[in-house]
Amino acid sequence: MKNIYRASTAIVFITLFSQCKVFDNEVIVPGYVYIPSYKLETAIDGSQGDTTAKIVDVWVYDNGSTIGSYGLPALIPIQKKGSMEIGIDAGILKSGQDYERMPNPLLTRAYFTIDAQPQKIDTITPVFKYIPRAKFKFIEDFDRVGLRFTKFYSMPGDTIIYVNSGDSARTPGKNSGMIVLTDSTDYFRLITTDPYNLTGLNLPSILEMDYNSDVILFIGLFANTPTGVKQIPLFNAFPTKGWNKVYINLTDEVAINPINTEYKVYIDIYRSKGSPRPRIIIDNVKLIEG
């Protein structure tokens, strides 16, 4: 209802504004593009994983020039008249931070041709895809043979189980991974079994992860450098009410390390003694470089 109210208010404002005059000349009213939502498409062969996404805004361009960035749903003023092509990038929270946003460099720009006219509102739904050069270093969606993660610090009885029903499943009918800890576990680490090479050279790299947890998840990397293994804390995923998705931008962290450094992804969990067993579910963990 809030989104409908915002769009209705904007339309009323446009109508009233068009009736104003300045110095006896009619005010020129822009056309508008309305973007209520978006879609993410992945390769049908499963090589790019699931289509979960958290695109919070759109970055809009006119022939390469930036018009602006707008939170979704977005009503975008177009200060032109006639046929024109606009480009739209998928905006994400940079490493989960509300105060810092960025176009996702690993998703394609969507293009539309519109006939811009004063007071006219064009409604469009951009479809985003991973860029052709995106390299998926690993995907853990718990629907593939074997696990990409292994227990590192744990107690006997700690385990990961597959869940695929109710709010425990990120996608209905598909598996998610639930981390089940014993009553005596106060610290647990999940880490990728294999190391993964990231080229560096300022190539964009992002770690995606869906999570549903009532405790903090401490997410980071271990970098195998010539001087030894370096731990790189990246992001603290705070407790959620249902599922959330984070995009952790690794580009700057990778750039300061030697070219072709190998990395392992880890997830740490701390638990106060005597506290109830935490509920921790993860899914769609993707390490991607472009």
Give a verbal description of the structure.
This protein has helices at residues 2-18, 251-255; strands at 21-22, 25-26, 31-35, 39-41, 57-62, 65-71, 74-78, 82-93, 101-103, 110-116, 121-123, 127-129, 135-140, 149-151, 159-163, 176-180, 187-192, 196-198, 205-213, 217-225, 228-237, 244-249, 261-270, 280-289. The protein is mostly beta strands. The strands form 6 sheets. Strands 13, 15, 16, 19, 22 and 24 form a 6-stranded antiparallel sheet that branches. Strands 14, 17, 18, 20, 21 and 23 form a 6-stranded antiparallel sheet that branches. Strands 5, 6, 8, 9 and 10 form a 5-stranded antiparallel sheet that branches. The relative contact order is 0.17.
Task: List the main descriptive attributes of the protein structure presented here.
290 residues, mainly beta, Immunoglobulin-like, disordered N terminus
Describe the SSE topology.
Layout (H helix, E strand, L loop, with lengths): L1 H17 L2 E2 L2 E2 L4 E5 L3 E3 L15 E6 L2 E7 L2 E5 L3 E12 L7 E3 L6 E7 L4 E3 L3 E3 L5 E6 L8 E3 L7 E5 L12 E5 L6 E6 L3 E3 L6 E9 L3 E9 L2 E10 L6 E6 L1 H5 L5 E10 L9 E10 L1
Parallel strand pairs: 3-11, 4-12
Antiparallel strand pairs: 1-2, 3-7, 5-6, 5-8, 8-9, 8-10, 13-24, 14-17, 15-16, 16-24, 17-23, 18-23, 19-22, 19-24, 20-21, 20-23
Briefly say what this structure is.
Helix content is 8%, strand content 48%.
CATH architecture annotation name of the largest domain: Sandwich
Q: What is the highest CATH level, the class of the largest domain?
A: Mainly Beta
Rounded mean pLDDT score: 90
Characterize the largest beta sheet: strand count, sense, and whether it forms a barrel: 6 strands, antiparallel
The CA-CA distance between the termini, in Å, is 38 Å
Question: What fraction of the residues are assigned to beta strands by DSSP?
Answer: over 45%
Shape: globular
How much helical structure, as a percent, in the residues? under 10%
Gyration radius, to the nearest Å?
23 Å
Unreliable stretches (pLDDT < 50, length at least 5) are 1-24
Domain tally? 2
CATH topology of the largest domain: Jelly Rolls
Structural class comes to mainly beta
How many beta-strand runs? Answer: 24
